[in-house]
Q: What sequence folds into this?
């Protein structure tokens, strides 16, 4: 693979950060890199939130403001506009998780519809996004995936889930705003896959509006995509996919072990990387049928994607190829790629502080456990601090 050094440019990467914001980010990643501190911090924060202690100000001033755009979509606007001044778009992600009640699913539906409308009016936002379990109980998804009979009450819940899906996909189609549907645990995913492909058949007639997510830490996903590709040829629709490695590896492996079935996860990191890169290549070679959102913080995969696009003669600005990172992470990839003219959008999570805690804890834990990622952020931040001093 051609050696590249685009991501070494910290001036472009952190152009939007003031000196004090740079210091704050450095301090935060330093804290996150300390595993015992994250463990204790997580426990204390969870307790404090449950006990209604006044810790929200502290959370906002530290992790929240680094990884989230705000508590509401309006709150995120300064972040959205600032990033767009450097060519980086935003995917506003209402990151309220783990809810189990119908009123809460309706609230997520309303929020998603509003964001699609919002995106329709703002060039800085090309996508809407939601999680399948934001629209219905995990257990319903799981039962559907396992083929277990639903009770009459659960059947009604399932129908409401289908209705919510149809409403947001229809809205996205009307507004011509692409819609990303996140991938979750494998034991609920088949039901989501079936419903999302139904939506693709209905709303992706001319172009990809509805995007499913492929988690490439699963060894069966490229095969799944090839099957979907066949289906798309027969029924004449376009495919939209977000490709990621996957966020629930430990949970997947533990459940497989406990229940005595073979894990769906690739046998090691190298196989996941290969699977991700092979799938990316498959999609880029079939761009007439498949549009892609490449969600990764992996430098090698990002360099490889640029190289493949170059080899295949795909224009950097081709709207069928997007790159995405999470807000607060890997700015060296996002801002340098956008500066080169690629389509880039960052996921910007938002929501009430207490409700986005599961998301924040996942980010803290991921940055503690993913070897190299925190030290990489720290290195880049310290390089930029040094560069500014000079
Ligand atoms: C824009 C965006 C959207 C996302 N949306 C989703 C989503 O909808 N659903 C979702 O699940 N995740 C999602 N993620 C998270 C993503 O799946 C990864 O957890 C995260 O991006 C880290 O992977 P990476 O490609 O950046 O790179 P890397 O840091 O190179 O890879 C880390 C990943 O590799 C895999 N891995 C690590 N060790 C092993 C091992 N021993 N064996 C096998 N595999 C291993 C795991 O998936 C791990 O997360 C999203 C990420 C981004 C940036």
A:
């Amino acid at each position: 693979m051609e050696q590249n050094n685009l991501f070494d440019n910290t001036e472009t990467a952190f152009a939007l950060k003031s000196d004090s914001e740079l210091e704050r980010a450095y301090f935060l990643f330093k804290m996150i890199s300390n595993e015992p501190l994250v463990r204790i911090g997580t426990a204390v924060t969870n307790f404090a939130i449950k006990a209604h202690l006044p810790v929200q100000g502290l959370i906002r001033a530290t992790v929240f403001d680094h990884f989230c755009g705000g508590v509401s979509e309006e709150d995120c606007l300064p972040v959205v506009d600032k990033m767009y001044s450097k060519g980086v778009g935003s995917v506003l992600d209402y990151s309220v998780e783990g809810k189990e009640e119908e009123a809460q699913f309706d609230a997520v539906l309303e929020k998603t519809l509003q964001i699609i409308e919002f995106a329709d009016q703002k060039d800085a936002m090309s996508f809407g996004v939601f999680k399948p379990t934001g629209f219905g109980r995990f257990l319903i998804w799981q039962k559907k995936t396992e083929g277990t009979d639903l009770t009459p009450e659960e059947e009604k819940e399932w129908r409401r889930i289908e209705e919510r899906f149809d409403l947001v996909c229809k809205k996205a189609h009307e507004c011509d705003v692409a819609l990303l549907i996140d991938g979750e645990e494998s034991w609920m995913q088949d039901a989501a896959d079936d419903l999302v492909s139904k939506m693709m058949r209905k709303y992706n007639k001319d172009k990809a509006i509805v995007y499913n997510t492929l988690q490439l830490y699963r060894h069966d996903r490229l095969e799944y995509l090839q099957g979907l590709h066949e289906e798309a040829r027969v029924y004449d629709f376009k495919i939209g996919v977000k490709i990621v490695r996957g966020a629930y590896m430990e949970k997947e492996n533990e459940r497989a072990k406990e229940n005595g079935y073979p894990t769906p996860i690739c046998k090691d990191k190298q196989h996941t990387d290969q699977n991700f890169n092979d799938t990316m290549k498959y999609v880029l070679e079939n761009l007439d049928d498949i549009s892609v959102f490449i969600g990764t913080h992996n430098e090698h995969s990002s360099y490889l994607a640029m190289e493949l696009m170059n080899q295949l003669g795909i224009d950097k600005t081709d709207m069928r190829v997007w790159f995405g990172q999470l807000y607060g992470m890997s700015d060296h990839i996002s801002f340098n790629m956008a500066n080169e003219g690629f389509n880039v959008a960052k996921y910007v999570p938002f929501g009430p502080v207490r409700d986005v805690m599961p998301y924040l804890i996942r980010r803290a834990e991921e940055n503690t456990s993913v070897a190299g990622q925190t030290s990489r952020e720290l290195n880049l931040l310290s390089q930029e601090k040094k560069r500014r001093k000079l």
About this structure: Residues 182-183, 213, 215, 217, 244-249, 265-266, 268-269, 272, 295-298, 324-326, 347, 370, 373 surround flavin-adenine dinucleotide (CB under 6 Å). DSSP finds 16 helices and eight strands in the chain. The chain has a mean pLDDT of 94. The two ends are 33 Å apart (CA to CA).
